[in-house]
Amino acid sequence: MATPCVRVCVVEPASSLCIGCGRTLREIGSWASYSHATRAAIMSALPERLDRLKASAPDAFTD
Hints:
Low-confidence stretches: none
Largest sheet: 2 strands, antiparallel
Number of strands: 2
Mean pLDDT: 95
Number of helices: 2
Oligomer: single chain
Strand order of the largest sheet: 1-2
Structural class: mainly alpha
Strand content: 5-15%
Order of helices and strands: EEHH
């Protein structure tokens, strides 16, 4: 099963998105139960989510 997980599991509080993969906690928890089509749709949205997250919360991505 394809997954966008990069093992950087940190949720940015304002957006509730994981800074590693861009998914919500609900999406992460339900990933295995989603259909292939649902997972593909979410995965296609992740690059844009992460770009927006990096623009709005750049401090979340610094060490």
